[in-house]
Design goal:
Blueprint: H1 2-6, H2 10-31, H3 41-49, E1 53-62, H4 82-90, E2 107-119, E3 123-127, H5 128-131, E4 136-140, E5 146-155, E6 160-164, E7 187-192, E8 200-211, E9 221-224, E10 236-238, E11 244-251, E12 262-266, H6 267-280, E13 286-287, E14 290-294, H7 297-302, E15 311-316, H8 322-325, E16 332-336, E17 339-340, H9 344-353, E18 359-366, E19 369-376, E20 378-379, E21 403-405, E22 408-412, H10 415-421, E23 430-435, H11 440-443, E24 451-455, E25 458-459, H12 463-475, E26 480-486, E27 492-498
Antiparallel strand pairs: 1-2, 1-4, 2-3, 3-6, 4-5, 5-6, 7-8, 7-10, 8-9, 9-12, 10-11, 11-12, 13-20, 14-15, 15-16, 16-17, 16-18, 18-19, 21-22, 22-23, 23-24, 24-25, 24-26, 26-27
GO molecular function: serine-type endopeptidase activity
EC number: 3.4.21.107
Catalytic activity: Acts on substrates that are at least partially unfolded. The cleavage site P1 residue is normally between a pair of hydrophobic residues, such as Val-|-Val
């Protein structure tokens, strides 16, 4: 009887199995629709473009370090293999009778990446880091054909490179799509050479657009969860029309493998860079000739800008295009050549993408009012001038303090102070000789040797001038004061400090 209860009859068991199968089928039909598994068009895209995707093989000769191939690997102290490797490597004679491989000859290293053909004459796009410092570059077609390639040009700032090779047979090329038309959640397909597994196809969606990960001055990546791994670098990211909408470049991963966070340079950027590399062998970027910084809420309040937006001009190059156009420090650029500027990155990208010599309208906010300036862009020289503000930590003995304001000890500039802080003669204003560690000024990284040039966009020459301006702003109900600050070399920046 017990057995009968635990084991239902064959007919009842068959009915239950049948019902279960129906339930699973119904759940599959309703709970997991076809589009949840990915669009069927992925296979069509892969078949259409696979022959245009190539592997990039490079070799480089490097100096052997610590014995080259005979070098002992670095092991954690106390490792169970430490004694074994010590005996094998340190006591092993290398070439020429030396121990540990001393004086070993240079050796060749190889690396693999991805790329794609954009012209049937043999033009390939890839990442700069895939071919950087390579002695030899080879393109490997989908059918295994290996052909030596030449470098056309590179752009380190966008990590892109263009190669060319002589095809031995007709090629398939792909074209660029419009990355600006991508939508969040849109399906994309990545094809490349991850871990040397050429011709690998993965699919995912667009997770984000215009992503800035602080890897370069013109960051505006497409983020995708399509699986991208080492070796995918330089490979194409396709939309479902089979157009290239990005070049797979970076991943975020603690393990080195894909965790669903990959980044591609958008095709709009790639197409412009590739055109210039093919035409000139280098990049010719537009140059406005200004130094810019972010517009914080405090700075926006000081300048009567609502909401906080744009790029604040902290300095104007005397030889740059902005100077004759009438752009001044303190101006906030909110529109460039018809395009809105939300932050400094926006301005950097749009200026760089604009043709050298083009006359453009630049809309700035000055003293709360919009003004339009016409600027003829110059050419950004590469490499860029590296600007660095080096501060000295030497304590200033017996400072001649003349005024205290905003948590700062202030003094009129004189010859002794210029010598002490190595301040250039061209710098005018009031020098900071000490900063209260608990003040807002300390949080904003003002330090001894900085020079306050303007307060609320008015020049100052003494601590009394600064205090007078601060007192007036308090009476006017302002919460913050905008300072134009110079370092010893004359490089300017704006700093907003609380007056409360």
């Amino acid at each position: 009887m017990t057995a009968a209860i635990l084991a239902p009859s064959r007919s009842r068991l068959g009915v239950r199995i049948g019902l279960a199968a129906i339930a699973v089928a119904a759940f599959g039909a309703l709970g997991t629709p076809a589009y949840a598994r990915g669009p069927e068009g992925i296979a069509d895209v892969a078949e259409k473009v696979i022959d245009a995707v190539v592997n990039i093989s490079t070799s480089q000769t490097v100096e052997a370090k610590g014995g080259g191939s005979n070098a002992m690997p670095q092991l954690p102290p106390g490792s169970p293999f430490e004694e074994f490797f010590d005996d094998f490597f340190k006591n092993r004679k290398g070439p020429g009778g030396s121990k540990g491989g001393e004086n070993s000859p240079p050796r060749k290293t190889n690396s693999l990446g991805s790329g794609f053909i954009i012209d049937t004459s043999g033009i390939v796009v890839t990442n700069n880091h895939v071919i950087a410092d390579a002695d030899e570059i080879n393109v490997i077609l989908n059918d295994g054909t290996k052909i030596k390639a030449e470098l056309v040009g590179v752009d380190k700032k966008t990590d892109l490179a263009v190669l060319k090779f002589k095809p031995t047979k007709p090629l398939i090329a792909v074209k660029f799509g419009d990355s600006d038309k991508l939508r969040l959640g849109e399906w994309v397909v990545a094809i490349g050479n991850p871990f040397s597994l050429g011709g690998t196809v993965t699919a995912g969606i667009v997770s984000a657009k215009n992503r800035d990960i602080s890897s370069g001055p013109y960051d505006s990546y497409i983020q995708t969860d399509a699986s991208i791994n080492r070796g995918n670098s330089g490979g194409p990211l396709f939309n479902l029309d089979g157009d290239v909408i990005g070049v797979n470049t970076l991943i975020i991963s603690p393990s080195g493998g894909s965790i669903g966070i990959g980044f591609a340079v958008p095709s709009k950027t790639v197409a412009g860079v590739v055109d210039q590399l093919r035409q000139f062998g280098e990049l010719r970027r537009g140059w406005l000739g200004v130094r810019i910084q972010s517009v914080t809420d405090e700075i926006a309040e000081s300048l009567n800008i609502k909401p906080a937006r744009g790029a604040l001009v902290a300095g104007v190059d005397d030889k740059g295009p902005a100077k004759p156009a009438g752009i001044e420090p303190g101006d906030v650029v909110v529109k460039f050549d018809g395009k809105d500027v939300k932050d400094p990155k926006d301005l950097s990208r749009v200026v760089a993408d604009t043709a050298v010599g083009k006359e453009v309208d630049v809309v700035v906010i000055r003293k709360g009012q919009e003004e339009t300036k016409k600027v003829t862009l110059g050419r950004l020289q590469d490499p860029d001038k590296v600007q660095a503000a080096v501060k000295t930590d030497e304590p200033a003995p017996e400072k001649p303090v003349t005024q205290k304001a905003l948590g700062l000890d202030l003094a009129a500039l004189n010859k002794d102070l210029r010598t002490r802080y190595k301040i250039k003669d061209s710098v005018k204003g009031v020098v900071v000789t000490n900063v209260d560690a608990n003040s807002d000024a300390a949080e904003k990284r003002l330090s001894a040797g900085d020079v306050i040039v303007e307060v609320a966009q008015e020049a100052v020459s003494s601590g009394a001038d600064i205090q007078k301006r601060v007192d007036q702003l308090k009476k006017d109900g302002k919460k913050s004061v905008l300072l134009l600050v110079s370092n010893a070399d004359g490089e300017l920046r704006f700093v907003a400090l609380s007056v409360q």
